[in-house]
């Protein structure tokens, strides 16, 4: 592990952008492990997940913030406040913009907010999904975005395919402050395992259920019991707002919940490199979106959701 006597660097990098801009995919690519859930649904990242990447003598701590959008509910407001909080605390903020969407209304709003409330660190631009547009459009959009805001650096990337990601990581490694590393070398995320496990199950629920349901559920790891043989028993509760939602998650003869449980167990076992025994329960809590305890479990502040 690097220490303060050598050329070590360590710092926080916030990834901000609209929902679905590819922040979680980029984080997972940078860290080299799956620490943030990636789905086709927008607004799936709720907590400020930190992933830790090593590049030479530098330790880059990523803050993967929820997407910034116009909030409508308490949960939305808490998520957006968490996103801006992550950027305010970071040494470098990277604004991610989807190449095929360009300077959208949402991106305009983020740029306006950055101009009004400057964050303390440097701000770079990463144009993601570059394989979705031709070169001329890409260059024109890059120019337009840089005219709108004075970014210190611009990167063209494909987080999914890995293009341009190494260049971005190397630049970040050079730009973060000198100093000792903040985390042990083998620690890839500072989220407790209980929360990572809950996020994995929530991802499987989101992928398996195509209704609007996923925004009205949350998953909590209730118990984590280590066993003598090196395996662990993990008990989780899926909270939903309505009885009808419980039936959808359980599925016919319990088939849906069994499939979700199997997928989550397999991924968690692979992630931890050991056997996991996962048990899921579904409970109806009509007002979970208004319960402070549920927000704490997601790493959010209930008060941030106040209108």
Automatic annotation (TrEMBL):
* Span list, region G2: 43-47
UniProt-annotated location(s): Cytoplasm; Cell membrane
Question: Keywords of this protein's UniProt record, alphabetized?
Answer: Cell membrane, Cytoplasm, GTP-binding, Membrane, Nucleotide-binding, Ribosome biogenesis, RNA-binding, rRNA-binding
Region of interest: G5: 157-159
Question: What are the recorded Gene Ontology BP terms?
Answer: ribosomal small subunit assembly
Query: A GO CC term?
Result: cytosol
Q: Locate the region G4.
A: 128-131
GO molecular function of the protein, one example?
Answer: GTP binding
Q: Where is this region: G1?
A: 17-24
Q: InterPro entries attached here?
A: G_ERA_dom (IPR030388), GTP-bd (IPR006073), GTPase_Era-like (IPR005662), KH_dom-like_a/b (IPR015946), KH_dom_type_2 (IPR004044), KH_sf_prok-type (IPR009019), P-loop_NTPase (IPR027417), Small_GTP-bd (IPR005225)
Region of interest (G3), ranges? 64-67
Q: How does it sit in the membrane?
A: Peripheral membrane protein
Partners and quaternary state?
A: Monomer.
PANTHER family under this entry? GTPASE ERA, GTPASE ERA, MITOCHONDRIAL
Family assignment? Answer: Belongs to the TRAFAC class TrmE-Era-EngA-EngB-Septin-like GTPase superfamily. Era GTPase family.
The name on file for this protein is: GTPase Era
Q: What is the scientific name of the source organism?
A: Celeribacter marinus
